[in-house]
Amino acid sequence: MARAGKEDRELNLLVRPPDPPDRRIGRRGFLQVAGLLAAAGAAGYAGGTVAGRGQDDQPSAASAQPLPGNRRNERLLNIYNWNDYIDDRTIPLFQALTNIRINYDVFSSNEDLLAKLRAGPTTYDIIVPTSWFVPTYLNLDLIEPLHQELIPNLTNIDREFVETDYDPGNRYTVPWQWGTTGIGFNRTRVPGGKVDSWAALFEPPSNAGGHISLLREVTDLIGCALIYLGKSANSSGDADLAEVVKLVRSLKPKLKKFTTDTYIDELAAGETWLAQGWSGDVFQAQDQNPDVAYVIPREGSLRFVDVMCIPKGAPHPGNAARFMNYTLHPKVQARISKYVSYGTPVSLAKPLLPSDQTTDPTIYPPASTKLSIVTLTGQKLQKWKAAYDQILA
What is the pLDDT of residue 61? Predict the structure, then answer.
C-alpha cells in the first residue's frame, strides 16, 4: 500500500474498498485507509454500549437535536493521532452511527505533538500522546477533564490502565493501544539469524553500516540507550546522559537515519537490517517480508501506552467523549488491535482476537519481561531533550 508524503497532513477521507482483512496498519507509517462516510447514519447516538453489550455498528434513530457537551453546536470531530494507527472501518462506522463527521490529521512524534499544542489554541478535539508525556500536558494546562458521563464504556478498561500514576481514574485520558519498543531485524542479515540484545544496535557488526536506523523520538532513543548502558531507564543524571550522547553520536556514521515513519517500509524492502522500532510497526513490515522479526532485548526495554486526551478549550469535547466511548466497545477494540498489532487495554476484546496474536509474547509480553515505563516532566524533560538535541546536532 503506497503512502502519502508527510505534507499530506489533513485527511478528508473518502469511501474506498477495504484492505484485505489480515492487513496490519502500524503505529507510525502514514494513514491512507479509513475514510469519511457521507452522513448515512443517524444523529442521536450519544453514548455507545456498556461492558460490551449491544452492537458497535447499528445506527440509532435519526435526530436533528444538538448533541450536549460541545462548545460549538456542530456534528464534527477533529482528531490528531499517530500516523497509521487505526483500521479502515472504525471511522466510517462511527460516522454512520452518529452523523458526526471526522477530520483526521496525523503526526509522527510526541515532540511534534507537544510543540503543536504549546504553540497556541488548536481546533483538535482529540489528541493521542504517549502516557509518559501526560504529566507535562497537565502541568502546562494543555488538556481538560473528560465528560465521563458520556463514556460509560470506561468500565471496560483493564484496571492497570485505570490505576495509573499519570492519570488515576481516567479523569483526563482514555487508553488507545499499548506496545513495546524493541528491535526489528532481517534474519537473513544478522549473524545466526537472531538478535537478543541492544548490542546489535549499539555495537553493530561492521557490515551493517548504512543499514541501521534509530527512532527519532526523545523517550525511546534516550531510554533504551540508558538501559543498554546498565542505567535506570528513568535516569536524568548528567553523567548518565553524557554517556548516552557519546554512545549514540559514535553510531551516527553507521546509521542509515533517525526515523519514526519510514522504517516499516525500509525493513520490508530489505534496505534496513536493524531498526529500533515499535512492536506493531515491525509486525507490519513482517507482513510484507517474512524475513523480518521483532525482539524485546534481554536487557529490557520500554512499554508505552498511547492515550486519547481532549485539548484545553476544544470545540467539540462532547463528540470527543462519544468517540472515546465507541472505541472502548470490545468489538471495536478488537478490530483496531487486530489491524495495528498492538495490545488492547480492554481484556473483553481479547476473545475476539486471533489466538496467534493474544499468545504472542512480543505483543503481550510475560510478566518476566523487563519493561520500564518512563514519565517525562519538568527538568527531566528539559535534560532529556537537551541530550537528544546534542545527538542530532
Answer: 46
Look up the pTM and report it.
Answer: 0.82
CA distance to 88, 148, 269, 327, 345, per residue, from 317 (Å):
24, 11, 42, 15, 22
State how far the alpha carbon of 15 is from the alpha carbons of 83, 93, 221, 326, in Å.
19, 11, 38, 20
Angstrom distances, CA of residue 375 to CA of 214, 326, 381: 21, 28, 9
Transcribe 95-146 into DSSP letters: HHHH--EEEEEEES-HHHHHHHHHTS--S-SEE--BGGGHHHHHHTT-EE--
The SS3 assignment for 278 reads strand
Phi-psi region of 76 (alpha: psi -120 to 50; beta: other; left: phi over 0): beta
Q: Is 10 in a helix, a strand, or coil?
A: strand
The answer to whether the CB of 259 falls within 8 A of the CB of 213 is: yes
Q: How many other CB atoms sit within 10 Å of the CB of residue 238?
A: 10
Task: State percent of the chain over pLDDT 70.
Answer: 83
pLDDT in tens, 24-71: 444 444 333 333 333 333 323 333 333 344 466 665 544 457 789 999
- Record the cell numbers describing residue 241, joined without a space: 546522559
